[in-house]
Design a protein that fits this description.
The chain is an alpha/beta fold. It is built from eleven helices and seven strands. The strands form two sheets. It has a five-stranded mixed β-sheet with strand order 1-5-3-4-2, with helices on both faces. Strands 6-7 form a two-stranded parallel ribbon.
Length: about 260
């Protein structure tokens, strides 16, 4: 070969589907998606799989659902774009980048891939979440946080320390209340912590979640824009109102609200 020719570390070849394995950074398998592709199956629109040849195996980077469709329909082989020389972390990064311009990658899937890539922000957020005995997931329970975007908004606007303090306060104040770890609560408590710190938060607000949440939703309803960018300040103001109950306005503990 001419030494002046530069060729990338990839090639197209026929690969056995049984030799292809999924990776942890992939989206969760959707049976509905597989069935949809089967119902509309057209070889001409199939495209090719993207795999990484690592440790003697073909790791699927793109095309997991299509590979399952092919196997379901009795295919044994498919053409694939074979990438070589990539580490596991580089594969995860490749997966995240290529999906930015395709079907929207869910925040949860992007975060999961970020962990596999060893993305510093994802790893640090996961560490803080676990240290406070929470986990990131798609459930609807108090200890399973689904609003990953809220976590990243907190570290962007306030830093990692405020995220840690926010989760600590929630765990010690409203443990077991599913709504307490939804987006609006996470952001509202973080706003409170960034303004006033943690002093006596759990003690003064422990029994007040229902009242705080009612005041917040009423404030947002009156404004007519639930979920707007002012949401966390409305929530924080409701927290301040209930925190101040029973305190004289000249008390050192009394919190002053400023927009």
């Amino acid at each position: 070969m001419n030494s002046s020719i530069k060729v990338p570390n990839q090639r197209i070849q026929l690969i056995a589907l049984d030799e292809c394995v999924p990776a942890n950074y992939q989206r969760a398998t959707s049976i509905q998606q597989v069935e949809k592709i089967i119902s509309e199956f057209d070889e001409a629109r199939l495209g090719i799989l993207t795999v990484s040849l690592r440790d003697g195996r073909f790791h699927i980077v793109d095309g997991l659902h299509r590979s399952l469709v092919l196997k379901t329909l009795g295919y044994t082989h498919a053409f694939g774009l074979v990438l070589t020389g990539m580490t596991y972390e580089q594969e995860a990064a490749y997966f995240r980048r290529q999906n930015e311009n395709r079907r929207n990658i869910l925040t949860f899937d992007d975060f999961k891939a970020g962990l596999e890539e060893k993305d510093e922000r994802c790893l640090k957020v996961d560490q803080i979440v676990r240290a406070n005995e929470f986990q990131i997931g798609r459930g609807n329970s108090f200890f399973q946080i689904a609003s990953i975007q809220a976590l990243f908004t907190i570290i962007r606007d306030f830093g990692y320390k405020v995220l840690d303090d926010t989760l600590c306060l929630l765990a010690n104040t409203w443990s077991g209340i599913p709504q307490a770890t939804r987006c609006e609560s996470l952001l509202g408590v973080a706003e409170f912590v960034s303004r006033y710190g943690m002093a006596e938060f759990a003690e003064r607000l422990k029994a007040g979640f229902a009242a705080v949440y009612y005041d917040y939703t009423e404030a947002m309803r009156m404004q007519g824009s639930i979920g707007s960018s002012t949401s966390r300040k409305k929530y924080c103001r409701a927290l301040v109102t209930h925190y101040n109950k029973g305190l004289r306005s000249n008390s050192k503990k009394y919190l002053i609200w400023e927009e």
